[in-house]
């Protein structure tokens, strides 16, 4: 795929301008079957960016990230970690819903490496306007987008990492002070056999983020 870069206004000065340009993106084929693009949302001066995988079925219909069950769980975990929700910006690695149609049901499909690469310029553009103190990758897709394809969430979750080079343009903000962190995806908590333990693990990782923000 050609990638999102050519659809991103180079002179965008606000997230609103970026968001307004996103519906015209043809950076990969995912726009064809999705209902609409689902752009990030949250504080214009967010200190913490939470990056998910891609919109789910409900997000695709409503046009907003993290409004379904995973989003509810994420909001609970953020609260239990002691993070002020007003400092957060929520977004996704890939901004259109990828699914497979089975009968009338739309079954979630994990975005592939080509979708991650194609859509990453939007994420980089969001970072360059937000200049956050910290980014948290939720799950493997976001972690691979930020830290590279060989990154393993199971091995490195909860570790405070330097700001990833792949998340910055050369002309962007000095990010020496900015940090990054990976944890599991809230959907993985919903699917876990031991849901309470998985939830506690997510909250523990988010407490590392809370300390950075403190
Ligand atoms: N899962 C995600 O990764 N993102 C959303 O927006 C919703 C569910
Ligand atoms: Fe563009 Fe990303 Fe949608 Fe692909 S998934 S069309 S790159 S916004």
TrEMBL record:
Gene3D superfamilies: Uracil-DNA glycosylase-like domain. It comes from the Bacteria. It comes from Actinoplanes nipponensis. GO terms for biological process: DNA repair. This is Type-4 uracil-DNA glycosylase. PANTHER family: TYPE-4 URACIL-DNA GLYCOSYLASE, TYPE-5 URACIL-DNA GLYCOSYLASE. The lineage of its organism: Bacteria, Bacillati, Actinomycetota, Actinomycetes, Micromonosporales. Residues 39-207 form the Uracil-DNA glycosylase-like domain. InterPro entries: UDG_Type-4/5, Ura-DNA_glyco_family4, Uracil-DNA_glycosylase-like, Uracil-DNA_glycosylase-like_sf. Keywords: 4Fe-4S, DNA damage, DNA repair, Hydrolase, Iron, Iron-sulfur, Metal-binding. Belongs to the uracil-DNA glycosylase (UDG) superfamily. Type 4 (UDGa) family. GO terms for molecular function: 4 iron, 4 sulfur cluster binding; deaminated base DNA N-glycosylase activity; metal ion binding. NCBIfam families: UDG_fam_dom (TIGR03914). Pfam families: UDG.
């Amino acid at each position: 795929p050609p990638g999102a870069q050519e659809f991103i206004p180079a002179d965008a000065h606000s997230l609103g301008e970026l968001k307004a340009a996103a519906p015209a993106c043809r950076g990969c084929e995912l726009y064809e079957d999705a209902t609409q693009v689902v752009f990030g949302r949250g504080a214009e001066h967010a200190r913490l960016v939470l990056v998910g995988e891609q919109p789910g079925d409900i997000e695709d219909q409503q046009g907003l990230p993290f409004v379904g069950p995973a989003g509810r769980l994420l909001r609970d975990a953020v609260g239990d970690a002691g993070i002020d929700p007003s400092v957060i910006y929520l977004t996704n690695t890939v901004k259109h819903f990828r699914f497979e149609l089975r009968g009338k049901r739309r079954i979630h499909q994990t975005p592939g490496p080509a979708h991650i690469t194609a859509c990453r310029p939007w994420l980089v553009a969001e970072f360059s306007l937000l200049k956050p103190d910290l980014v948290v990758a939720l799950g493997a897709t976001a972690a691979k987008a930020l830290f590279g394809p060989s990154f393993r969430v199971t091995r490195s979750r909860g570790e405070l990492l330097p700001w990833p080079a792949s998340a910055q343009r050369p002309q962007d903000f000095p990010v020496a002070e900015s940090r990054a962190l990976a944890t599991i995806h809230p959907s993985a908590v919903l699917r876990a056999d031991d849901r309470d333990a998985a939830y506690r693990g997510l909250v523990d990782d988010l407490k590392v983020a809370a300390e950075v923000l403190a």
